Amino acid sequence: MSSEEKYLLGVDIGVLKLSVSIGDFSGNILVNNVFKTPLTYEAVKSRVFYFVEEYLKTYRVEAIGIACSGLVDSDKGIIISPPNIPWLANSPICKDFYDKFNIPTCLENDANACALAEWKWGNGRNYNNIIFVMFGSGIGAGLILDGKLYRGCNGLSGEIGHIRLNDEGPYCYKKHGSFESFCSGVGIAKMYSQKYTNNITAREISNRAKAGDKKALDIIFESATYLGKGLAILVDILNPDCIIIGNIYTRSQELFKDRVLQMIKREALEESYKDFILLPSALKESLGDKSSIGVAINGFNQRNS
After folding, report:
1. Is the pLDDT of residue 2 over 50?
2. Is 119 part of any domain?
């Protein structure tokens, strides 16, 4: 059977929505069903299993990939502690899928999954050392080092949101002044609220900044400053070919890019800075669905290498 006749199945579990997709080995999404994330693990399985069973009537699936936010144990295939989805904690999801469908199933956290997708089909193609930064409601990183996904000794690599960049700042990721305090949707909204006593979302702040609102521009400038400082640390430590930033950065690159590069150039070693590039996500709004397909193909390739 040719690779064109083999397919991959992806499950992307988010706080608000869950998607079940069929993709090919080139990263094309052929079928996709999206629905609100059910409120129990049994309900998640029931809903997802229904779509998997339907897909298997048409497609020969070689591997299943699951992407989920928060701490996961990829080796054991267990969701450990997803933020804001506590009912999925300690779920042996890979075993349950394998027992049901007898198809090899792999699990990664969402940042690692997005790094795999960008590496395979996005702006990380042709690079062996990339850092993918999720800049959404929170912030985290997925690392491709020396041409393979790096998880660390217990799967906690890339938790950049916990790094303290200032002794003061909004309380995010268990401390004041963390990377996440300044460079996340939650953090940006909290910065605006603390400075101007108005509660508005990061998306609205970005929209106001694009329209020239000075208050919003000041908050975005501060976020971009800390984003550059934080990324400079990664540039010096990991010496990547490129850093790819998704979510808020991709949607509002014009607000962030110049200041971020200015700060990286100021803070990082010149030798490291001059040989790396900063890029937005190429996959944009399709990144979530393709991330779980990326997990599937990575597991497939590891088993067949």
Report:
1. no
2. no
Angle between helix axes 253-267 and 214-238 (nearest 10 degrees) is 40
Residue 147, both tokens: 């041409």
User: Quick one: 152 and 189 in the same domain?
Assistant: yes
Q: How many domains does the chain have?
A: 2
| Token pair 């049901």: residue | 100
Could you tell me the CATH number of the domain that includes residue 298? 3.30.420.40
Q: Which 8-state DSSP code applies to residue 14?
A: -
The DSSP call for residue 164 is: B
The reply to whether 218 and 234 lie within a common domain is yes
Pair type for strands 171-172 and 139-145: unpaired
pTM tops 0.90, yes or no = yes
pLDDT tens digits, 246-277? 999 999 999 999 999 999 999 999 999 999 99
| Residues 188 and 207 both lie in one domain | yes
Matching residue, tokens 């694009």: 210
Residue 120 domain-assigned (yes or no): no
Q: Say if residue 190 is exposed, middle or buried (CB neighbours under 10 Å; 0-12, 13-18, 19+).
A: buried
- Kindly state whether residue 121 falls inside one of the protein's structural domains: no
Domain that holds residue 265: 126-281
**pLDDT tens for each residue of 229-246:** 999 999 999 999 999 999
SS3 79: strand
Q: How many CA atoms lie within 13 A of 103 on its CB side?
A: 23
The upper half-sphere exposure of residue 54, i.e. CA atoms within 13 Å in the direction of its Cβ, equals 12
Burial zone of 218 (CB within 10 Å; 0-12 exposed, 13-18 middle, 19+ buried) = middle
Contact by Cβ (8 Å): 44, 59: no
